Amino acid sequence: MKMHSRRKQQARNTNRSFWPICWLLAVALFAGPVGATAAPPARPNVVVIMTDNHGAWTLGCYGNRDIKTPHVDRLAAEGTLFSRCYSNNAVCSPTRASFLTGLMPCQHGVHRYLGGEGAQLGPNAYNTLEEFDTLPSLLRGAGYVAGLSGKWHLGGNLHPQEGFSFWVTKPHGSSAGFYNQNVIKDGKIHTEPTYLTDYWTNHAVEFIESNRRRPFFLFLAYNGPYGLGSSMLEPIRNRHKETYAGATLPSFPRLPPQPWNFNYGDRIGNIRIIRKYAAEISGIDDGVGRVMNVLKRLKLDENTLIIFTADQGMSGGHSGYWGMGDHTRPLTAFDWTMHVPLIFRHPGHVPAGKRVDLLVSNVDFMPTMLDYLALPWKNKSQPKSPGRSFAAVLWGEEIKDWDDTVFYEFENVRAIRTNRWKYIERFRQSPNGLYDLSVDPAELTNLTGKPKHAETERELARRLHAYFDRVADPKWDLWKGGTSKSGLIMRKLFDKPGPTRP
Length: 502
Prior knowledge:
The protein is of the alpha/beta class. It has two domains: 45-394, Alkaline Phosphatase, subunit A (3-Layer(aba) Sandwich); 412-471, Arylsulfatase, C-terminal domain, CATH 3.30.1120.10. It contains twelve helices and 17 strands. The strands form three sheets. Strands 1, 2, 3, 4, 5, 6, 7, 8, 11, 12 and 13 form an eleven-stranded mixed β-sheet that branches. A hairpin with a 6-residue loop joins strand 16 and strand 17. The longest helix has 27 residues, at 271-297. The radius of gyration is 22 Å and the shape is globular.
């Protein structure tokens, strides 16, 4: 029986706790004579490659003709690409927390990027996910060895968290540059002269080579391409300097900055920064190629599931913005800050060359992974994930009753997105937003308050409120007097802006 068929049968069973029993029975059935040894059923290695501030629009497999991404494109050609995956927040820490837990910010309590010392370093540092099931902790409990190479940005950075035993990361989340930057290795901070993108790839390859004879989970979390701050003012020093030396890169729109730009509007059309961002994407693509090559060289290719994604999106001039949803005032929930790549590759198991148009969210990732790997949730006291498994698609099936709706939450901004509509609501601030994406994909014409669309607006608002009433944990529900683990950009709007340690 093919592995995906076995996984499919296990995942469909409503009582997921039966998996350890089935595993033991399988060992007993195939162990042979008393005293003989037998390997446990094959479990795929898992490699998650996550980029930072990276819109899907930058990749060749998503239609970009300017930026060179042959290895990511090969991942897509040999795997399944989700054309409409959206992050549920605009910034790093909340989106990573949701990706690894399957929970919304109002459930895990991380509403904004972690800044400064606080939870990250120093005497008060702590892991913001410590009370939840996470993908690495559950995989470690299932016998995997777990390794992180790259950006964590979820607290307790100095020492391994969530079941990781291999731990090479950054002291903080922001990226001032890609050269001569501080990193953490062996519990110590040092300045690393190596190009950081290559540094993370080097350690990812080291981890794979060291653990090739046991099931492993690798979280390769690049801090590039980033696109923000002083990192974009560095000269291009990776091997793609000449590639982009004379490139005009028309996939970066040259539009007048919108009035809501809080910062970075002056970067729209700045060819130096545009070329730097493109070069950093191609640098990551090199790393993807190296990971694919080492898996093939070690004959691990067919037993390894690779996932490529980003924490949140990034505007490169789209709709007159540069950056993420925290670079506007008011804060925003537009598609350019939400749309991220999502690609799954597992040769012989996940369909090759398939494009999926379901509307999915990073909150759906964790339930999908647990179904695909036939692993149960363990922590019965934590909030229930509102995410939905799309594992059937990875088994080559169609999902006919999928609800094309995703939700978003960023401090005082909440949104619901359907195939046609985006409704944005703001807490103690205006304006709200209503956009007809079928005719206004750039979200430039706000229809809120228009009599013609009043019923649509009311229905979307009702659905938005019902969703958060159902899923929110009162402790972390900012809109109903809750607080935050991370502190807030719009702290003046809230009664208990935090940061609060659980």
